Amino acid sequence: MASTTTTYQRLALLASDTPRAMEAHAALLGQGEWAPIEEADAVVVLGGDGFMLQTLHAMLDAGRVVPAYGMNLGTVGFLMNRYDKRAAIAARLNRARRWSIAPLRVEAVTQGGDVHVMNAINEISLLRETRQTAKIEVTVGDRVRIRELVCDGVLVATPAGSTAYNLSAHGPILPLDSKMLALTPISPFRPRRWRGAILPDRMKIVLRVLDPVKRPVAAVADQKELRDIAEVRLEIAQDAALTLLFDPGQSLEERIVAEQFITA
After folding, report:
1. What is the pLDDT of residues 61-96, one digit of tens each?
2. What average pLDDT values come out for the chain (264 residues) when binned by 10 residues?
């Protein structure tokens, strides 16, 4: 959800380790005093979408989340703003619009019984580990919806992540304020005609791996991978909402709408 602009007093500056991002970092250092991220009330992120996700996850893990303003020095830059070394960064942030996004909270249980709790800002995907197809039971709410999904994998995407891996797997694009999740199969074999579902984000989802010894499955939450999964339980984490900052007219919502009209 968008909100009005805010004045940020103490800014942190983070950059990925790519040459372009490091060059931009050096150029912006002279624009003022930068605070450590532990003391900042907003952070400027230089890099691509992957580095933005890494930064957001680091803040979630640290238990202190501040608004993030990204400048694209990567490839796609879906979560980022245009980089311009001539523009005053403080002025850009103070004009920026705030967008709140809630990640998925994932509880993954391994075959050995270990429980791992992870956050997924874009998506959680279950993927076969070997040449054997995966077999997965799908429960939504309190009901088993598919007793045996035979596939290469399955994913659950948030609106913010619906244009990433989910779109490549032919899943739907979700408006940012839709309060929906995309449940999308990856190369389904049975049921062959099932193309996934759009679900209210208040519903809990359980994905249970069938025959995990013969057909092992890995779980990937954004950039974190766990292997030999028995089950994942997931729901939206409203208490862990993140804030992204966008220049006027360049919001994530507009990019999600525009993505649906790309024909080439």
Report:
1. 999 999 999 999 988 788 899 998 777 888 899 899
2. 68 96 92 91 95 95 94 88 86 90 96 96 97 97 96 96 92 90 96 93 97 95 95 94 88 71 66
**Which of 49, 61, 201, 211 is the catalytic position?**
49
CA–CA distance from 178 to each of 167, 200, 242 (Å)?
16, 9, 16
pTM for the whole thing?
A: 0.87
49 is catalytic: yes
- Domains of the chain by start residue, with CATH: 2-102+241-259 (3.40.50.10330), 104-238 (2.60.200.30)
Cα 85 to Cα 16, 21, 117, distances in angstroms: 16, 11, 39
Residue pair 259/167 in contact (Cβ under 8 Å)? The answer is yes
How many Cα atoms are found within 13 Å in the side-chain-facing hemisphere of 2? 16
Tokens of 178: 């839709």
Classify residue 199 as exposed, middle or buried by CB count within 10 Å of its CB (0-12, 13-18, 19+). middle
Distance in angstroms (rounded) separating the CA atoms of residues 24 and 80: 14
Report pLDDT digits (tens) over 246-258.
998 766 677 777 7
Angle of CA points 93, 95, 97, to nearest 5°: 85
Q: CA angle at residue 122 from 135 to 118, to 5 degrees?
A: 70
Cα-trace Rg, the chain: 19
Mark residue 79 as left, alpha or beta (left: phi above 0; alpha: psi -120 to 50; beta: remaining). Answer: alpha
CA distances from 26 to 18, 19, 47, 157 (A): 12, 11, 13, 35
Which CA distances in Å does 237 have to 102, 103, 119, 241, 246? 6, 6, 8, 7, 22
